[in-house]
Write a structure and sequence with these properties.
The structure is a single chain. By secondary structure, the chain is of the alpha/beta class. The chain is built from 31 helices and 25 strands. The N and C termini lie far apart (about 60 Å).
Amino acid sequence: MTKRNIRKVAILGSGVMGSRIACHFANTGTEVLLLDIAPKEGGDKNKIVNDALAAAIKSSPAPLYDARFAKRISTGNFDDDLAKIKDCDWIIEVVIERLDIKQQLLEKVEKYRTPGTLITTNTSGIPINAISAGRSDDFRKHFCGTHFFNPPRYLPLLELIPGPDTDPAVLDFLEDYGQRILGKVTVRCQDTPAFIANRIGVFGIMGLFHLVEEMGLTVEEVDRLTGPVLGRPKSATFRTADVVGLDTLVKVAQGVKDNCPNDEQNALFAIPGYLQQMVEKNMLGSKTGKGFFFKDRSSPKGDILALDLKTLEYRPQVTRRTAGATLDAAKKEDDLRKRTALLYNGTDKAGEFYRKSFHGLFAYVSHRIPEITDALYKIDDAMRAGFGWELGPFEAWDAIEIGNVKAEMGKCGAPAIATWVDEMLAAGHTGFYKTEGGKRLYYDIPSKSYKSVPRAEGTIVLSDLPESSMVWKNSAATVRHLGDGILSVSWTSKMNTIGAEVIQGLNKAIDLAEQGAKGLVVYNDGANFSAGANVGMIFMMAVEQEYDDLEMAVRTFQNTMMRMRYSSIPVVAAPHQLTLGGGTELCLHADKVVAHAETYMGLVEFGVGVIPGGGGTKEFALRLADELKEGDIRINAMRERFLTIGQAKVATSGHEAFTLGYLRRGQDEVIVSRAHQLAYAKQCALDLWNKGYTKPAPRKDIKVLGQEGLGIVYVGANSMLSGNYISQHDALISEKLGYVMCGGDLSEATEVSEQYLLDLERKAFVELCMQRKTLERLQSIITSGKVLRN
């Protein structure tokens, strides 16, 4: 099984899930055969599958890292092309959720499938053993459930559900393949209704559906309480239900109610009256345009109206102070674990809401072991990866403290928790998790002891490293030993922004690495790599007119980036998710970038009224000069680079970052597996050292265009201004940006040094910070998070 190679995958069914699963396999470089039924009428037998794939490719968020990857997908129909599956290494069935249809299709599949080929189903709840009934021994041996979550590119959960005859080696292979190649968090489940994530997630949603009636809350109040403040997606509860589809939600809930009669919370899966009426009225959420929320397109601003659950009529959203002091206190706490405890212990109506919802959730998950899985960490993994929770249920329970929760539950008549929790506490254990000797441990119920949380082979997790690995830290940044002579530097500021302490940490990391290490990896465990420089700090210095201090701060940032470029050891940056402004500039100056596939990289300074000031503008001028060849139309290449910054373009994937010029083809890389990113970045740093890394020399041969480029910039800015496409301030920023990228007012194309461009860049940055309209833009970002166009 370890020698198995997945070169070609067949996806049977091109609906919303099938077409997007096909796209994600194409993202990884795999050849894909996408098949569906032929239409009953018309001459084009591939119309259904082709239309479905085209709709998927055009959908938002995009299912492909790069639109060109669609060429890796070929299409066909079940009537003419099913025999082609004989050449596929993995066949995935993704047809409608009806047992009879799945069984009929798989009977046909067995006629053409090559023995030994993997065959899986993406069912979200039909028993695996029922789907494979009647199939051959070889079929059942290589058959299991592989439940992807929608959208497959963005939600990392992949549930693996064995059938009664599944070869354990098949599960081992899929677990490894899912992690390394598909970038998934693979979780093994029992073959029980709704498996793990949907069983727990739908319970949580149904519980809130009933609680909203009990406490007299509105849908917008509940979404305010159950969104980012709780470490969960912005869509929270009711908006999530709209996106999923209320018909789908009702179907899953009804399935659990019908098929889990012994579930102690079976009654909670009963559909509330208002929800039943909504389904009957076709108010199914986003798919029908009406759900718990409705976008009123007749209003000037396209207002989002909320549903009154008592009247089922839409009304303007009301910002009622249900949360009061609890939410106010929580907003001041950046640490999610401490914030969770604050919310639970609130003394107002919000605190009551959190206690009731947490008590129900905690009791429920305690009873699901061993029914749906054999280990508590798998429930947490599934909820983080499938529903976007930053803390799984047991992790949240730990954050509040198990003993405190148990005592509180006893006072208020909450649902009873499972006896194993009482036994754990009685034995003196105070947490579901703990860290010892650099390993994260979880409480194993059968053995009544702690065991290591399994990690994929060849992975490194910063939070698991022992205390002894830490070599330096301040309140924001930490430098650690990764082993083999490689250091890492990471930071934990809000949104991982780069301020004075992070700059100090980067410089200290380089100091320490140059004293005997072989390389440095810049990497963060946080939700984002970096949202850029600390805008608040820039605003305060600018508004106080402390221009000398501001100039020094920008110079320090530039010098730090140049130290990364010209240190005596290789520096590898490993970004993920938001990598904006200063975060992108950091990557631009690394010897190599190992970007996660979901890296959204961009120089976005234009939106706050300035130009990239940490070497980003300089670096784009340098890369432009290096890319130009004899005979190239220099102005066209210059315009492309200029617009990337001037339009604040952000790559929608690591692959698109190559197209925008943020990553270098043949030098930087993209990795799909987040779990393997740090270990691979470490290996890249080591490889650079072992190849004989030599400290590079600062560049003095950057050819800039001078007045030749400036003329185009100024004419373009003025024509855009005349056409009312940009504001007067946009035109000013454009001219400053062009001035730096062209090397100033030089009479002809001239070779200049990096320091020359950095000086121009810094001067332009500070001058723009002197503008009132720039201060207004900075203030808008700080106070509302919105880009102001003034």
